[in-house]
Amino acid sequence: RRKTSGRGRLPTRPAGTGAMTLIGIPVEKGVGKACTSPAKGENFDDPEEVTTPFRVRHGTGSSLDGALASDLSSEERAPDTRPVSSRTIAWRLRYVFVLAWLTTLQYGAVGPSLMYLSQSFFAGSGADCEAHPSSDICKKGAVDLAFWSGISRGASNSVAWLLALSMGSCSDTIGRRPIFRVKVSASIVPVVMLALHVCFGVSLWLYLVAGPIYEAFDINGVFLAFMSDVIQEPHARAQAFGVLIIGWFGGAFVVLPLAAFLPSGIAVVISLATAAIKLVYMFTVFPETSQAAVAAACDGKPRPAPPNLCNVAREAARVFCRHSFILRMAIVLVLSGLSLAGLGTVATPILTGYLGMEKAAITGLLVVSGVSVVISMVCLMPPLVRCAGEVRALQACLAVSAVYPVLFPLCTTPVHVTILSGILVGPMCLQFPIISAIKSNLVSQEEQGLVQGALAAARVVATALADVFFGWFFRYATAGGTLPRSSTFVPLGGVALLAVVAFLLALSLPSKPPPPPDAARPPVSEGAVELGAGSGKPVDANEVELSVGADPV
Questions:
Q1: Is 529 helix (H, G, I), strand (E, B) or coil?
Q2: pTM above 0.85?
Q3: d(CA 199, CA 187)
Q4: Distance separating alpha carbons of residues 307 and 171, to the nearest angstrom
Q5: How confident is the model at residue 25 (pLDDT cuts 50, 70, 90)?
Q6: Distance CA 450, CA 516 (A)
């Protein structure tokens, strides 16, 4: 069973047997009794094995052509840098696409209505902020909504960072799918609370409390580890995130325009039905991608206990301190997260309360921004990454992120904001797939869940601080929405300052990231086989020495 760290077991099987795949990726080769993963219902080979760990680099001219050679995937013989087609990536991501589209329908159906329902709730009884978003009472409601939303998200994220830190590493042992199932099951609760408010007049506070509690269960690190499982070629990960975002926006382009014209009651019913469908999909179709969890299921062994949180924190700190590149990337991620979270907190009340954007205009802005993202992913990111490299491309995206909040105060009408977003939002959002690809390529496959969870925790902490600070700061700077639009320039200046600092720190990064630990290991000589974990001593291919227990064979 192949391990990316180079450790494995020597299977005894005839040559020429094909490889089983997990979502289109070679996982293990061999013959023997077929095992069925109880959670998935798919067959995987369970090779008969000897107990000696080994690491093999097979070259031409070796006498081990045949049985042993066929047991080695191309990744073990040499790094595979061949380009991966977008069609292949899309097929590997087919389960993720379905989940993303269902999630988009669940939240996109109520998204446009939810913004104005919440604004009207804070504006007071009788207010209709969907019809009159720029009225004085709705402007005050928008500012109060930003303030209380910042506090609730900050409280939620103060818990979420602990879960994000542990969930990524935990998914390495118990698997990705159980955590996804818990998240999807919990997503029904906020929708039910919102339905009670819309259909039966129950206070919106139930939703405002249930939403942050649900969001506290942050599994972004688990999702990124899932992506690393599915896309094991490091050079293809930026492309894979781009394909995923394009596919996600494809669903959003269908949902959002329709949601703009849906009454809130019908939108809530659609959201509830979609949540139920997503729950069934997660428990019946969605696969497990953690090789450790699949191997444990096939071997009939109990899954190991989740790692201790303190141990996870120590391991994450050890990885971050491995070299300065990872540490600086983490700081850039935090600063960029602070800036983007602050922009989201500040921009919403400006658009509704000060510029008077109605539901249709907000939906049009989202669609135009989505088109900008898709065009940037398809036409801009591939040549930019190919010509400049991932690090230089990230620096360019961070520069755009610093320019956007500077130009935002110059927009005096909804049309101006739509044009600005259509030009800059796409290039600005390229940083997400590029950052995800860079950070996943800095560590070995065994550390993906640990590092993705730790970085997700850092991002959540940054978002919590930004939500609380900018929610309060915006309310203070605008005196609760009573001052003119020029009072919003100061909070936007704070957002721009954080983006500039992130950009300047990114300029200190070298143009080429360091390789992960496994890639840095010196290769074994041509035609040689290295046996014995940690011995590091290659022997001639015709002289294979195995140790069973303490006795040499």
A1: strand
A2: no
A3: 19
A4: 10
A5: very low
A6: 14
